[in-house]
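Good morning,

Attaching, inline, the backbone tokens for the sequence recovery test we're adding to the shared suite. The designed sequence is right after.
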């Protein structure tokens, strides 16, 4: 039996760029993968309702089983509607952010986030101006579906680099 110090958390292979020996640009996994568990939940809910219907009158089946199937189907439907397909990758989001901030960009970083009840994918892009040290910085939110600028904030860099 492993001791606590031997247990390690690890990224799945498709998300681990270093472990996969990746050479070249990293491709962010598409958000539409959420649809797979959505379909699985819906099938499991249908099977559960079918079993509950066939085993009606059994002491092992009651209303809780059907209520659980309804809850599972609601979660499955949520997964299906939240499985947006990304049309804008991180490179496109970086280009849109450079256009939005209005200054030459040096260092930049893009991160995927989700917003709203429908979990719409949005790129959060942090950019710094190209001086050394950077004089300005900006945070830009770019919609991952249509590339629309969701929000932009630009300011003088308050960090002390001395």
């Amino acid at each position: 039996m492993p001791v606590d110090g031997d247990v390690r958390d690890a990224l799945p292979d498709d998300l681990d760029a270093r472990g996969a020996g990746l050479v070249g640009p990293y491709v962010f996994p598409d958000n539409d993968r959420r649809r797979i568990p959505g379909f699985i939940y819906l099938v499991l809910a249908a099977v559960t309702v079918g079993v509950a219907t066939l085993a009606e009158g059994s002491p092992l089946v009651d209303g809780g089983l059907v209520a659980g199937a309804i809850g599972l189907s609601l979660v499955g439907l949520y997964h299906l509607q939240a499985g947006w397909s990304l049309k804008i990758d991180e490179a496109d989001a970086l280009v849109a952010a450079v256009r939005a901030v209005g200054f030459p960009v040096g260092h930049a970083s893009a991160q995927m986030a989700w917003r709203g009840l429908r979990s719409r994918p949005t790129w959060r892009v942090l950019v710094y101006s190209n001086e050394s040290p950077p004089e300005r910085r900006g945070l830009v939110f770019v919609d991952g579906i249509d590339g629309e600028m969701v929000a932009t904030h630009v300011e003088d860099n308050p960090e002390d680099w001395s």
